[in-house]
Amino acid sequence: MLMLRPLSRTPIARAQAAFQHHQPHPFFSRIRQAGPARVKACQPLFARTLSGQSGPPTPGNDAPNPIDDATQGPQEEEERREAKREAWKSTAWKMFEAAATTGASIFILACVGIGYTKYYKWNVLEKMENAFREGDPVLEMAASGKEVFREPTRHEATHDVDDEDDCDRWIPRDEQMKIDKIVWGETKGRYHLLLGEKGTGKSSMLIDAMAKINGEGCSMMEAHADLEVFRVRLGRCLDFEYHEDNIGSLFSIRGPRDAGAILDIERAFNKLEKVALRRRKQIGRPLILIINQAHLIRDDEDGRDLLELIQQRAEQWAASNLATVIINSDKYWVFERLKHHATRMEVHQIKDLCKERAMQALRNYRMKYWKEKPAESILEEVYDKIGGRLTFLNRVAKSDDMITKCNQICELEKIWFLNNCAILGEEMDDDVMDQQKFASTAMVLANALYRTSLETDSSPAHATDHILPEIPLHRARFIMTRSDFIRKHHDLSIFSIDSHAMVRADSVPMQRAFNEICSEPGFERFLAATLDRISGIESLGRTKELTFKDLWDGGKYRLTTRDGEGGVRGLVEMETVEGKKDGDDDDDDG
């Protein structure tokens, strides 16, 4: 009873009590009279109506229990709170799981990226250091051409080979020992410029010095006029790919920005400096970087910037004994450019062989190619015609008739000179005046060298070695009356300029061509006529024609010349002269 008392106060309980005390409806009275079974059948429907239940009772549509409704309210609220807490926990866990997964992915990606970057940088230095270990592509190519010593092949080791075939083709020179010490790393604190005409053996001496140590610590590259090609060749020489093989972009690591060839060359030199520091701690000798044919670099703004970059690095490395740069050039302008900022540069002038060494080289070449020993008289005659230029000696030794080959070489040099610098005489057209200025200056200088050679022919030294006549550079420019043409003649290998600024013929055959041309009868008059014609054309170009008008009926022009102070120094009056009439002419004839 105590438990039911509060329930009696509920709205459903009060409605049932009121219904029991209320006067029954006539319809319900009739139902009650019909019998007890009828009343029992209608009670559940009424009860469902009062309780709010719709339809017949089903397992999912049970009648609500007031007691359950009163007790289930707080439980459902608690369950909702618990479900909400579980939902927040699940959301927070999912957020934490996603954040942890993302963080772990980023961390792993960062670790892999940093690890790859460190490995790539280490691999770059390792590859560059490997480029300076024993063996070099230059030596391999030279050995395949039998230019340097190489290991015998299986056929050569199992078959008898004539000892004369292994004749030493490398002629000992005075400069070879000095070059050896430089390439071997014994000479430190300097960078070097090898200067000389083409074919004098500069590259051969460098290759020979590298072959003696099997290229250990040395690397050679060929220069080129195009900076992009120079960049590629430097990368091949140092085994440096300029980060083109870097896959750091897979890890969102930005590689080196795109730039010009100069900046890539600077990056390569930075890596080379690190390798040089490492090797100096391990070995104690500087690296040797050889830049061959540096004269191929263009003498323009980009080419001068490249030479300046190379010289700056060479100066720094020479001061710290990290690396020794050797620059090989055929042209004088490279020396002029490097001379501006040179502090530790040492210049080596490479000349032709003397008579004794040239004859020995020719004898060895002839034994190598033809298995014969030529007579001394023939060797002397060959030297007298072509001198001690190694490239000429090699070509002559390969020929069947050496004297005929010498004459052909001399004739080719003469044709080359005339094709570029032939003069046309007094009958030349004024349209070719600029070209004739260039040609006439070369002829004037060639004539001066020819006259100088007549004085040196009687000297005792000329009986043993070729001493080409030479003129100082400033004197040569004075003779030519132009200061800019000598550079173009030098580029055409007509004249040569050494490190002491002395101008001479490029070779002995070229000097012989000068002698033949300038000794021809009438050459002096022909050259003078050409120069007079050039002067006449220039004078005609500087002449101005003045036309005066309106001088009729006694009109005059007065020209006054004054000095710097304003005083009159001259006075000229011009007026027309009255022409003669026809009648006057007839009278004069009569």
From TrEMBL:
SUPFAM superfamilies from the UniProt entry: P-loop containing nucleoside triphosphate hydrolases
Residue ranges the record marks as coiled coil: none
Organism: Ampelomyces quisqualis (Powdery mildew agent)
Domain AAA protein C-terminal winged helix: from-to ranges: 419-538
Entry-linked PANTHER family: CHROMOSOME 1, WHOLE GENOME SHOTGUN SEQUENCE, ORC1-LIKE AAA ATPASE DOMAIN-CONTAINING PROTEIN
Protein name: AAA protein C-terminal winged helix domain-containing protein
UniProt superkingdom: Eukaryota
InterPro entries with a match to the protein in the record: HTH_AAA, P-loop_NTPase
Start and end residues of each stretch annotated as Disordered: 48-86
